[in-house]
C-alpha cells in the first residue's frame, strides 16, 4: 500500500466535525482538559472506550462522561477494561468450577481500586460475609483451569496467557486483601457494583446500555481495538448495530463474548497469536465502504498516526494515559491534532503514516 493507493478512490467524509478522545482511564481532569482544547461545545465527541482503571478516580470519570452524554452529542464505545468489569459483576456467582468463574479475580489490582471507590462511595458498609466465605465466592475453584482450558472461543496461546495472567492476579489480590480491606470488603463492593452498574435504574447502568461496539461516520469505522476477519464480516452483515445484544451476551455467553469477534474488537493488538485481519476482512470492509478504522487501545507517542495493517488503514489516536489531547476529523478530509502548546492540521493524505 502506498499513500497514493491508500487515499485513492472515493472517500465519504463525515458530515459533521468530530472530536475523538482515546482511552480516558479514570481521569476526569484529563478528559476535561482534552475537551477544552477544541473550544467547540456543540461538536460531536467520540469516546473510544476504556473509561475504567489506571487513573485517579473511576467514579469521577464516569460522572463526567454522564454529564457529557447529557449535554452534547456524544458517541460512546465500549473498551476491554469496561467489558471485563461488567462481566465480573454479571458472573459474580458463576459456578466456581465452571469456565466463567475467574472474571472477578481477573480484575486484579486495577479492579480492586475501583472496588475500593465503590465501597467508599456507598458509605463503607460493614461486610456481612466472613473473609473466608467471600474469598471462596470470588476465586475460581480447583476445577476451573480444566474447564477453562477446554473453551472453544480462545485458541491455545490465548488460553495459556489467560491462565498465567490469572495466577499472577490471584497472588496479587491475596497480598493486597490482607489488611483493612479484605476479601469480604471486595465481595461487598462488587455487590454494590452490581446494583449501580447492572440494575436498569442503577447510577452507572448507562455504561452497559449506551456503549457501542462500533460506530460509523462516512468512510471511517470507529472501534476500540480493531477487527479480525470474523468481526469485519459481521459488520458487513449487521452494520454498526453489531453487538446491539451485548446485555444478553454478557449474561448468557460471557466466554464467547470476551474471546470471540466482539471481545477481540475490544482487545486485539494484532499480535501473531490473535486471529488475523486479512484479505477476507479487507474485502468485507471495502464492500461496506469503510476506508479506515479509527481506534484507541494501543498507546503510541506518535499518535495520531495512520497505520496500514494487512492493507487496511487504521487511524490510531491513543497517545497514552494522562495526556490531554484530542484528534479531530473535519469535513473535507482535514485531520487535526490538539495538545497543550501543540496544534497540527493537514489533509489526511498528507498525514504521516506507516506500514506494520
- Looking at CATH, the homologous superfamily of the largest domain is Metallo-dependent phosphatases
Beta-strand level of the residues, as a percent range? 5-15%
* H/I helix tally: 16
| Shape by Cα distribution | globular
CATH architecture of the largest domain: 4-Layer Sandwich
Q: Termini separation (Å)? A: 11 Å
Q: Nearest-angstrom radius of gyration?
A: 21 Å
And the CATH topology of the largest domain? Purple Acid Phosphatase, chain A, domain 2
Structural class: alpha/beta
What tags apply to this protein structure?
Purple Acid Phosphatase, chain A, domain 2, 2 domains, 16 helices, 356 residues, six-stranded mixed β-sheet
What does this entry look like structurally?
α4 packs across α10 and α7 packs across α10. The protein is 43% helix and 15% strand. The strands form two sheets. The protein has a six-stranded mixed β-sheet, covered by helices on one side. A six-stranded mixed β-sheet has the order 4-5-6-8-7-12, with no helix packed on it. The protein has two domains: 222 residues, Purple Acid Phosphatase, chain A, domain 2, CATH 3.60.21; 116 residues, no CATH class. With 356 residues, it is an alpha/beta fold. The longest helix is centred in the middle third of the chain and has 21 residues. The mean pLDDT is 94. The radius of gyration is 21 Å and the shape is globular.
Amino acid at each position: 500500500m502506498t499513500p497514493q493507493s491508500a487515499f485513492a478512490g472515493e472517500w465519504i467524509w463525515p458530515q459533521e466535525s468530530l472530536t475523538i478522545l482515546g482511552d480516558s482511564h479514570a481521569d476526569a481532569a484529563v478528559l476535561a482538559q482534552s475537551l477544552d482544547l477544541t473550544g467547540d461545545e456543540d461538536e460531536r465527541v467520540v469516546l473510544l472506550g476504556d473509561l475504567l482503571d489506571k487513573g485517579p478516580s473511576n467514579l469521577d470519570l464516569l460522572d463526567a462522561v454522564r454529564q457529557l452524554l447529557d449535554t452534547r452529542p456524544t458517541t460512546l464505545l465500549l473498551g476491554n477494561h469496561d467489558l471485563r468489569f461488567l462481566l465480573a459483576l454479571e458472573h459474580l456467582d458463576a459456578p466456581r468450577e465452571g469456565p466463567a468463574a475467574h472474571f472477578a479475580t481477573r480484575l486484579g489490582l486495577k479492579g480492586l481500586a475501583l472496588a475500593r471507590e465503590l465501597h467508599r462511595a456507598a458509605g463503607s458498609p460493614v461486610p456481612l460475609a466472613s473473609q473466608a466465605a467471600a474469598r471462596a465466592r470470588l476465586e475460581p475453584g480447583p476445577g476451573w483451569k480444566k474447564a477453562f482450558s477446554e473453551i472453544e472461543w480462545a485458541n491455545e496461546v490465548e488460553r495459556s496467557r489467560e491462565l498465567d495472567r490469572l495466577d499472577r492476579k490471584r497472588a496479587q489480590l491475596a497480598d493486597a486483601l490482607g489488611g483493612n480491606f479484605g476479601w469480604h470488603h471486595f465481595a461487598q463492593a462488587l455487590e454494590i457494583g452490581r446494583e449501580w452498574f447492572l440494575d436498569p435504574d442503577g447510577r452507572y447502568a448507562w455504561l452497559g446500555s449506551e456503549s457501542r461496539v462500533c460506530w460509523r461516520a462516512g468512510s471511517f469505522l470507529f472501534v476500540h481495538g480493531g477487527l479480525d476477519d470474523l468481526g469485519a464480516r459481521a459488520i458487513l452483515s449487521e452494520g454498526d448495530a453489531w453487538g446491539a445484544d451485548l446485555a444478553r451476551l454478557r449474561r448468557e455467553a460471557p466466554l464467547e463474548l470476551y474471546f470471540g469477534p466482539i471481545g477481540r474488537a475490544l482487545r486485539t493488538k494484532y499480535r501473531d497469536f490473535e486471529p488475523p485481519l486479512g484479505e477476507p476482512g479487507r474485502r468485507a470492509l471495502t464492500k461496506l465502504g469503510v476506508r479506515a478504522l479509527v481506534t484507541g487501545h494501543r498507546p503510541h507517542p506518535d499518535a495520531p498516526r495512520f497505520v496500514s495493517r494487512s492493507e487496511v488503514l487504521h487511524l490510531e489516536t491513543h497517545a497514552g494515559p494522562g495526556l490531554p489531547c484530542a484528534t479531530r476529523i473535519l469535513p473535507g478530509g482535514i485531520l487535526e491534532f490538539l495538545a497543550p502548546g501543540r496544534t497540527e492540521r493537514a489533509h489526511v493524505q498528507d498525514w504521516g503514516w506507516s506500514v506494520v
